Amino acid sequence: MGEPAPLAVAYDEGAVSPAEIAVGVAGLAPVAFVLPHSPHVRKLRPVLSRLGRVVQLTGRPERDAVLLRRLAPAGVLTFSESLLRVTAGLARTLGLPHHTPEVAEVLTDKYRQRERLAAAGVDTVRCRPVPDVAAWEAALSAVGLPAVVKPVHGQGSRGTFAVHDRADADRVRSRLFDGPEDTWVVEELLRGRPSGPFGDYVSVETATGPDGTEVLAVTGKHPLTPPFRETGQFWPAALPHEDREAVSDLAVRAVTALGVTTGVCHTEVKLTPGGPRIIEVNGRLGGHLNELSRRACGVDLVRVAALLALGAPPPPAPAPPGRVYFQFNGLAPVRPGRLRALTGGDEIRRLEGITGHRPYVRPGDDLPGGVGSVFMDLLTGDAPDHPAMVELLDRALPLLRYEFTDGATTWVESPRRAC
Amino acid sequence: MEPEPTTHALLAIFQEEIGSDLIGPDDDFYAVGGDSLTAVRVVTRATEQGMPLRLIDLLMNPSVHELAEHVRAAATGGGDPEEAGGPGTHSESGLVAPEDRAAMPAGVRDALPASALQTGLIFQCEMAEDPGLYHDLMGLRVTAPYREDLFRSALRELMARHPALRSSFDLGSYSESMQLFWGDVTEPLEAERVGTAAEADVAVSAWRDAQLSTTLDWERAPLFRCHVAAGPGDTFRLTVAIHHAIMDGWSFATVLVDLLTLYDALLTGTGHGLPEPPAAAATEFVRLERAVVDSPEAAAFWRAQCDVPPLLDRERYGRPADASGRRAAALPQGLFADLRARAAEARVPLKSLLLAVHCRALGRIAGRTTDVVTGVVVNGRPEMPDADRVVGLFLNTVPLRLPSVSGTWAGLARTLWETEMASTPHRRHPLALIEEDLGRRSFDAAFNFTDFHVYRRLSALGSLSADGWWDRDKASHPLSCDFTLDYPGFGSGLLVSFDPALVTEERVDEYVALAVGGLRDAARDVHSAGTEPLDG
After folding, report:
1. pTM for this one?
2. A151 by DSSP, 3-state: which?
3. Which residues in chain A are contacts of B35 at CB distance < 8 A?
4. Domain boundaries defined on chain B
5. Check: complex ipTM more than 0.90
6. Residues near B121 by beta carbon (within 8 Å), at least 6 away in sequence
7. Chain B contacts in chain A segment 1-30 (CB below 8 A)
């Protein structure tokens, strides 16, 4: 009796952990985790059910609408790319603020997103869908080389390929449709400008409410490990003021062009010699950013997203931190293998400036191999400035050692900053 | 006060669970490698050691120092330890996941995954937003003294005997939908005194109307209600309302008969003699149903049965049918005896012969000679001794297609019998799934053949007798045709309910006339091809 209406958070593997959700939402509304059937959810159910109510979805929209109507939430929200469309459908049923199903569709379909951005004059990147193998050659010649091939839905973990020449084209073609993947897109490869020890791309977090879109932060990145493997990020980005303005302006125009009217978005932007270009817009908070934001500025971005979902206006952007706060992710091996040991955590934590080391995999875990962005761990720290961060990472990373075995052989890797 | 014991104990737990001796009391749980699942273990161990913690406490106070401070503050302020849940015994079937069982509230004695048949029905009710849908009532007049204390005792005994009467549903909180069986549920009885038969009528009608305008909330046990209007003299009127998700029609009859049997035993001070219903039947049903719910063969079989143009104009189907119209045609016992003999001659069950008559009549009123689809009620009750004593939802209604209505009664009955035989392995595939896969309703008219011989047990009771039976149920079909034997208060014959907005009264009357004519014709000569012309 009298229990306040919950905030329904559609949860699966994504940008934010259950713990961060519970902490971020605490005091605003009770959390109700709305769950699809997935191996990740099955594993974390004991955690989720201790942090809030749980509502298991059936996967059938009419039935899920019934369950959500009974839950009668005050708002709905997700931090999982894979649940954006489902959440949009539930929000529409309940009449709550969120991306509309149409906007969620565009946000989760890279080809339609490019079309929409081009039509609005925000950015024109040549792009073609490849629904089947027959469409491959025509798509490739329309886009031209060099090109990049990505799955039309979802994130890079399943594989993003660069195509520089004919040999690449044939190799990629043979890999595209040998699994149960859905459609792919081919895009013009955006070439970054020289960016020194930093990545040639950044991401922009925006908060959209009834009065428009605010930029919450521009996040700098460590260089990609080829082909497109991410290794972490930092606040603030190492950008001159005018570049920061140009990047922010582009992200706000992109989000607006896609029809976003509410919530947090994460826009990735390539820094090219001709100016910033859109890599893609995601309709939710970026991965690991909440940890960075809480540590750097004391601002909880989960709470920001929750407030927007509850109909509150977006808060002002966090003040830029006086130091450089960073995260670094060790990459899982390209070769499939089982983790035998992960050592060096205690030593690395003793270094001045390193504030934490959290493994994501445990000895005995099997790793699938491949070139997606599968992370071994999260290293966190801060430094007086950007060069000091680079110096600290180069000292710290060799201390971490991952020992793998594939049954026949055993090998050791340490995380590395790409150059 | 040197080594503060709470800090010391928590630090030991942190170090052991994360697996590092170097963790200090100021280290952040996550920064030193903790994760959510480790956090759950930390909280569980701390609670076991007398430091009651919730997971959120650890997340908000992620270092040992902060957490120890929180534990001390909670101890002085009256902490809020997490409920150590877990029902008493039941559900050792292996069907309920251990973490689901552990998360159940204290009052739950047993749990079972809800069947797809049950969840399908509940969701259908919710989507229809009609409190009367699948909210069934039965009433009767009992000639016996009404002793409230004894009647309440009988009702409590009935609820102890049939877990379904102590159950509710939870469709979202666990890894799958659950039917929860509670230990202590107060018997849902409303009783009033009346002076005359007319007053009894008024009391029964008022209670029925009030009942039908309220939803039985499937999240709250019990999912049934009883009403007694006591009087005049040594008679009383008993009405029972149920949510169909907890029991089928046969079970409903069992509930009434068991209740009266228990009450009679208390009145006469004798034993009731009712055998224990086998507890494993409900579990077994869930197991059997699971085997077919995800079966592509079952889905394909049912799609082939119903994926033909429907009999009724779909444009008028904005909502579930409101089957408020009724027709009844009583028929002599002898006619059914003859039909049984003819069915035996054609080497088919009586049900198939009746179904043949139904399909041809249905085809005629719909103007169809091919692909006549009808819903047929099939029994999915597990085969085990005394399974018929168990109260639960075991009846499914499935679409069956008769490709052509041409031929002899025997031939049509044989085709339908063979189809039903072929469908047997798939018969527990719930209607809701068949229809969700099809994207529409799979049939417009439902057929049922009932022989509620359970009621015959009442004639053996010592001190009471029952008459004046009535019932009210509401399915979501535009037309429901029940061929029934020995139905209390009616006898044998044909009972039809329909939605006048979807099937006109004239059509229904035509159907009844054709069906009765067909029954007589088949009883005369099962090898005849019927007397009415087939085209048109």
Report:
1. 0.80
2. strand
3. 358, 360
4. 5-77, 98-268, 291-524
5. no
6. B134, B244, B245, B393, B432
7. 17-19, 22-23, 26
